[in-house]
Amino acid sequence: MALAKYYNRLIAGVDSETVRKLEQASVLRTLEPHSYLFDQYSEARGVYVLEKGVIMIERSSAAGRRQILGFSYPGDFVGLTHNDFFEYSVQSLTQATVREFSMREFMRFSDASPALKSNVNRIGGGVFSHAIDQVFALGQKKAHERVCYLLQEIRNRDVGPDEHTVELPMTRQDIADYLGLTMETVSRAIRRLRNDGIIEIESSQTIKLVEPEVVSRLGSVTGD
User: Fold this and answer.
1) How much is the pTM?
2) Please, what sign has the CA dihedral across residues 197, 215, 155, 136?
C-alpha cells in the first residue's frame, strides 16, 4: 500500500479499508524548486503529506516582513488549519512531491475513524510543541546556539548522507528568517562554530558536525 511508506504517523492503527479509501481519494503533485504549494490567506481546500524533497513554511506581515515557521521533510503533514484559509504559505526548496487530500474528504474520513482523528490531533500537537521550541530558541539562545538548534533539528530527521553531515537546502536568508537573525549574523555564527572546531563547512549547503555532542548541547531546548 503506497501510503504506508510515508504515513506511519497518520495511518497508525487505522483500518486497511479506510487507508485504501484515503489513498484513492488523494492525488500526487510535483513542485519545482522555489514554487508555492499554496499561499497565505488562500482558501484551505487541501491537506498534504510530503513524499519527496524539502519544503518551507513561511508567514509574512502586511509590511512584507517574513518569518520562517519551519522546514518539512518526507513524511511531514501540512495544511491543517482551524480556519477557511491558510495562515501561512508553503514553498518548495527542492523539487518536491506531495500527496494532496481534499480538506472536505479528509475531515470526513477523520470524523469516521477514531484512530485517524487521534493521529491528526497528535500531529497537530507536535506542530504546537515545535512552535514552543522555536520560540524558546529565539528568545533564550545566542546566535551560534540558534544555528546549532537548526543543525540538530535537521540531523534528527536522518536525511543526510551520514549521521554527522547536515545538508542545508535553504539559503542563509531562509535560516536567518527562521532563527530571528540577520543573514550577516548567521554567517558570523557559522564561522564561530567552524573556528571553534565544532563544525566543518564542506560547501555552502553541507556542514560536517565535528563535535556533534556540543552541537546537541548548544542547540538543546530542554535544558542548558
Assistant:
1) 0.88
2) negative
**How many C-beta atoms lie closer than 10 Å to residue 77's C-beta?**
21
3-state secondary structure of 188: helix
Helices (H), 101-142: 103-112, 114-140
10-residue mean pLDDT series, the chain (224 residues) = 61 88 91 97 94 95 91 89 91 96 91 92 82 85 96 92 94 96 97 98 96 96 68
**3-class DSSP state for residue 206?**
strand
Position 72: which residue type? S
Q: Give CA angle at 96 (34, 107), nearest 5°.
A: 110
Collapse the DSSP code of 116 into the 3-class scheme (helix H, G, I; strand E, B; otherwise coil) and give the result: helix
Q: What are phi and psi of 208, to 5 degrees?
A: -95, 130
Angle in degrees, 0-180, between the axes of helices 103-112 and 16-24, rounded to the nearest 10? 170
